[in-house]
Structures are given as structure tokens and as C-alpha cells.
Amino acid sequence: MKTKPILLILLLSVFARVVHAQEAHTGEEIRFNTLQPTLKEVLNAIEAKTDFSFSYNPDILPLEKKVILSDESLKVSEILKLISDNFNLSYTTKGNIIFLKKRLDKEGGRVFIHGYLRDGQSGENLIGGTVYCPTSSTGALSNYYGHYTLQVKAGEQVQLIYSYVGYQSQMVAFDAIGDTLLNISLYPQQLDEVTVTASKLESIQEKVQMSAIDVPMELIRSMPVLLGETDILKALQLLPGVKSGTEGTSGMYVRGGSPDQNLILLDGVPVYNASHLFGFFSVFNDDAVNHVELLKGGFPARYGGRLSSVLNVNMKEGNNQRFQGGGAIGLISSKLYVEGPIAKGKGSYMVSGRRTYADVVSRPFMKRSLGEDKLGYYFYDFNAKANYHLSPKDRVYVSVYLGNDEFYSKQNSSVVINNSTYNNTFDYGFKWGNKTAVLRWNHLFSPSLFANTSITYSNYDFSLVNKSKSHRETSDGNAKELYGLNRYQSGIEDYAAKIDFEYNPSNTHSIKFGTNITQHLFSPGATSIQSNQEIDTTFGESTTKAIEAQLYVEDEFELGSRLKSNIGLHSSYFLVNGRQYPSLQPRFSSRYLINSSVSLKASYATMVQYIHLLTNSGIGLPTDLWVPSTKNIEPQQSWQAAFGAAFELNKDYEFSVESYYKEMDGVIEYKEGANFLEPTENWEAKVEAGWGDSYGVEFFLQKKEGRLNGWLGYTLAYANRRFNSINSGKPYPFRYDVRHDISFVGNYKVNSRFEVSSAFVYKTGIAVTLPIARYETDGVSIDYYGGRNAYRMPNYHRMDFNAIWKKEKKWGERAWVVSVYNIYNNRNPFFIEKEYSEEEGRSYKKVTIFTFLPSVSYQFSF
């Protein structure tokens, strides 16, 4: 019984000695060479001259701020009290370790956890990554620059789970003492690893945004390709609600809209013509692309200027850890990219290029068959991007895209007429291309307020040149030379500045607002004629200047645990030749959770488009002209309403069904017989404004992760147009009105070295106009046409296949890619050709250009 108080006395004695020793230890004096050292210098001096060491989060301590000392020689205890008072810190001592933390202003308050979500191998920002707090069932998404913000309860231990599709999830636990900057790096997931499904935040049924599809770039790169060229736009054509137009082309017709009604953004800069090779390939080189997102409806207020869709394409930022690169050699082109750090961990660059070489390879054969005549075509792309961290709160980006297509033909001939020799040369060619550039600054005003400021430039130009030269020599030695030059040019050039803000006052409330202004320079088409016969004339349109300004605000919030909404207003203004067009465009989208796996969604959006595209029918020649709204041609307007449901099936599959209805007013069309090269008329006299509508239902089942991934989609859709002077003023089907559209995309990773993929598409034929009778007037045969687009081309279907063999090498990795387009050789129609003979009368023949088409490419990375 007496041993207990003796033991207690001994323990108290030992504790007192420890405390006394600790107090004596903190009573040691530290001498400094200056009275204004930085906090980091103070902590380093204490660690160097005592047995103490410090534990703290460097992101929340002002290490570079100066400490004002009262004397050059102070006790450790005095220094600790000084820095805790000056910098609002608290400290505790356990043994020889001093723990420094930010002092709470009030217990039980809220603090911000924020930072950037990055790829651990390259340092690239991860867009749309998730941060989830299981204890509070709250979370956040990383934005287009990888930044996230999350509020948690102060004073508690917080457990956060970070995840991204295709990456290993990471769990972090710490005490939420104060606002904390926490940058997290995730690493790509190995084939046999299991994803932490509990970390998935805002699955399809939880997102308020509808009609949006995010396609992983890895899936796009593994899909079957045409002629060995991975194409982002062709992959998107396999999604519900997106039509492909003519076979093999990369144009997009979204929910009954035209190609000009798609807002295509490359790093936030509009791209006005996204096609190469007469429309068969897009301008997006997959080696340079990091993220792709398509919005078909329910547009947030931050987007404006188009009626049908928004396509966001973000370029890679480059590896800020090490130098690496790669490329591919295909049947029609080759490409190469390199990336690396500017300063390790602080900045990086990426450069990528692609060029066709068909013109170079075929030149010897052409010379053999054509002699001195020349015929050729090529296209190229160049992408470059760099970024640098100026500080933890500031980052700058610069990115550039250059692309061009050129077709050229040169013919030489020599003839003798009446003892005179004529040496003739004819040069014909056309080219088109895009240029974009952006300078961007990200700034973090506070953990809850993020800003992005951009200055952008965009240019699209098209030119057609026809040169002729004739040298005449008579038998008596006299010579005379004639030459002529016909040139047609058109284009659009933009200079713009914008600023966007993201404010997150809480986990259930997010506000985005911003403004931008753009100066458009339109060149709708000018034809110049020159010769040495004193002819120098220009017809057509001169450059037209226009100003477009936009201002928006959108508020996303939760009402209870089931209802979440996004309400916004987009205001725009267009000034051209003294005519003003102001507009207010309300936007709304909402979702209601029936349970944790099922939700109902609805959206409504009005849109205004101030620019128009004059489109010639054909196979995709770049003769389309961008023109502004004028006093006579008003802006295009639309409204779209959608309703649907979203499900999550077994945590791996996402399923959605959406119905929509859209009306469009002010859409324009060439009048019957109008010619874009006609120099004697203003373009406004060649077109007519009309009305259109579209409606349908879309089904979409998608699996993004695992050995097997891909999607299955089905669309039932209707699209119509109506113009006063076309089809007798009656509504008629839009050319790309496709009633039924089924698509399947599947990718299976057999192991880390081998994977296969397949794509299948079936759709009913597009609408065409065909003559139904033929008669003669004054000896001239004339076709009589029925209703506009009253007939259908045959149904279209094909299956494609792709296989990839990878192998690790000492220098990196190589891969062979074998693709087959239209594997069962279905003769799908490219267009319908009219034939007529006296014996058989009128007949039609379908013309096919893409049958069974295998291709192979060699890819490498180092």
C-alpha cells in the first residue's frame, strides 16, 4: 500500500527534472549578426546552436518575412514567444522537437485547403481531378489549371482523398490548423491496380452540368484511325448527338447545328477552321493535347458566341521534371514532340510538329509521269507551349499554334500556230491555315478567389491563286509575253483580352464571373485581276471591323443534399459599321438526386451568334467564308431546353438519357445558284436568312476505367430548316438530318504490352435533293427537282479495328499500331452521281471512296 505514493513521488520528480531541463534548454541564448533576420534564418540558427529541431508546414509559415529582434542575443524561449506573437503561430514541445502551427482565430471555424493537382511524373496540371473528404462527405474539382479549393472545419484532423481517372488515388491526413496550400502529385495507375472508388466525387448523377462529355485522351489515342492518323474530332463524331457529315471528314454537326455553330477553343482561343486535307483530318495533333471536353447543351454563362456546342481542347504544358519526347511515322505524315523543364519543378515547355510527306515521296513518280508539270499537296501543324511559376500564387503561360494546307498545280505547254511558238505556263493553287496565340496569367488572390487573365490572337485565311503566262515567238524572231493573275482571298482575324474569376465561398457554393472584348477583322472575299494589258482591278468586299464584348456571371449552389443548380446570365454586345446588337442570354441547369445513384436533370440556355459561315456544298473544300452580322443580316439566335436522367451502375459504368428541343433563328444559306466567287455582288445579296429546329433523344453508356473501357451510344434525332425562297417556303430536312445513329467504341488492354480496340457505327442516310423529271426547252435539257432534301442516301455502317504492340527499349518505348478502316468492306456512299442515257433514262449511282483500308504506323517515346 505504501509503494504507490513513493512511486508517484518518483514520477513527479522525474517529470519536474524533465521540465526543468527543458526550461533550462529553452533558456539558452542565441546570438544573431543582424536585428532583422528572416524567420527561416531564425529557425535555422536555433537548430544549429541547440538540440532542438522544428516541425512545420513550410506552405503556411512566412519563412521569408523578417523578424524584428530587440537584441542581438536572446533566449530561445524569448525568440519563440516573439515569433508566435508576430506571426500568429502556436508552438508545442515534445522532447527536442518544437511543433509550429498557425494559431486558430476561433475554434470550430472554417479553413481553406487549396492547391494544385498534378501528374507526379510530368508535373502537368490535372483537369477535373477530385478531392474528397469522407468525414464531411464534401469535395471539390480541380479547374482547367489544376487548382482546387475545399473548406473544412478548423481544429480537426482532416482526411482527404485525391483521385483522377487512370491514376492511383492518394490519401492525406493532417490537422486543419489554418488555411493550407497543399499541392498533390498523382501517378499513373498500373494495369492490375484497383482504384479507390470511394474517392470518386461528382459522378455523372451528381454533376449539375448536363450534355457534357469528357473523353480521356488515352482512349482517343487507342481508337481505330484512318490512314494511321489519330483524330480527336473523328472520335467525338462517335458520341450521341454528334454527326459526322460526309464520310471520312472531321466536321461536326451537333444536335442539328452547322459547323460554324461550334465554338472550338484551343487553350481558350477560337479556331475558325479545324480541318486538314479537305476536311478528312482535324488540326489537333494528339501528341500536343492534354484534355478534351465537349458541351452539347446546358451551356454555362461563361460561354457565348455560338449556338450548338463548345469544344474545349487544352494543350499539354510540358514535363517540368525531366526531358522527354516521342513521335510517330505513319502512311501520310510523321510527327515529333519534345518537352522538358525550364527550371525543374517551376516551369516547363512543350513543342510538337506534324507534316505530311506525300508530296515529297510522290515527287519522283510525278516527274516521271508528268515531266516538268507539278502537282502536290501537304499540310503541317506546329504547337508550342511554355509556363513558369513566378510565385506560389502566380503562374504565366504562353502557347502558339500554326497550321497550314497547300495544294498546288503547275502545267507547261508549247504549241505552234501560224509559224508562231507559244510557250504557256499555268500555276494554280490554294491554301488555308490557322494561327493562334495566347499569353495567360493565373493569380490566386486568396484560397477562395482564383483569376485568369488572357490576351489572345486568332487568324484564319484562305487564298486561291491562278497565274497564267504565255510567251510567243514568231519565225522572224519577234517575241511577246502575256501574263495574268487572278487572286481570291478571305479570312477572319481576332485580337482579344479577357479576365475570368472563380470564387468559392463554401463547398456548396461557387461563383464564376468575367468579361472579354474582341476586335474582329473580317475579309469576306476579294477577287483581284492583274495583267500586263493594263488591267488591275479588285472586286468584292473590303475588310470589315467589328467589336464584340461579353460579360457574364454564373452561380452554382446546393439547396439541401439533393438539389443543385447553376443559374447564370451572359450579356453580349456587337458593334459593326455603326449598327449595335446588344443581348441578354439567361442560362439555367439543375439536378435532383433521387438517391445516391440516380438523378434527374434539366437545363435551358439561350445563345446568340454574331458571325456567320457561308458554306458551299461539296466535299469539304475550304471555300467557306466567315462574315459578320450587318445592318441587313441579323445575328443568329437559339434557345435549347433539355431534360434527362443519369445513373451510376456498379461504380464503373455511367449511363445517361437526355431529350432536347432547340430552335434557331437567323441561320443563313446561299440562294439558289449563288457563287462565292462571283465578284459583282455583295455577299449579303447572295444569302437568305431562315429558321431551323431540332429535337431528339440520346442514350449514352460509358466506362472510363479498367482493362475494358469505351462507350455505347444511340441517338434518335430530327433536324429541319425553313427559308422563304427555298422549297417554296416550306420546312425541309437539314442535309445532315440523321434519324437513327448507333455507335460503339471498345478498348481492351490485354496486358501492359498489347491492347486492341474496335469501333462500330450505323446511321440512316443523310438527306439529298434529286431531280424527279427531265424536260427540254428550246433544245436544252433541264432537270426538274422535287422537294429540297426529300430523298435519303443509303444507310451507312462500318466497323474499324485497331491493335497496338508496345515494347520497352533501353532508350524508351516503341509501339506498332495496325488499323483497319471499314474492316468488312461495306461500300458506303460518299455522294450520289446522276446518270442519264436515252436507252435507260435517268439513273443514280453511289460513289464510294473509302472501302477496306488498312494502315500501319510506328510510334516511339524516349
From TrEMBL:
Matches recorded under InterPro entries: Beta-barrel_TonB_sf, CarboxyPept-like_regulatory, Plug_dom, Plug_dom_sf, TonB-dep_rcpt-like
Signal peptide boundaries: 1-21
Localisation per UniProt entry: Cell outer membrane
Domain TonB-dependent receptor plug span(s) in chain numbering: 228-306
One Pfam family cited in the UniProt record for this chain: CarbopepD_reg_2
Membrane-topology descriptor: Multi-pass membrane protein
Domain of life: Bacteria
UniProt keyword terms in alphabetical order: Cell outer membrane, Membrane, Receptor, Signal, Transmembrane, Transmembrane beta strand, Transport
Family the UniProt entry places it in: Belongs to the TonB-dependent receptor family.
Protein name per UniProt: TonB-dependent receptor plug domain-containing protein
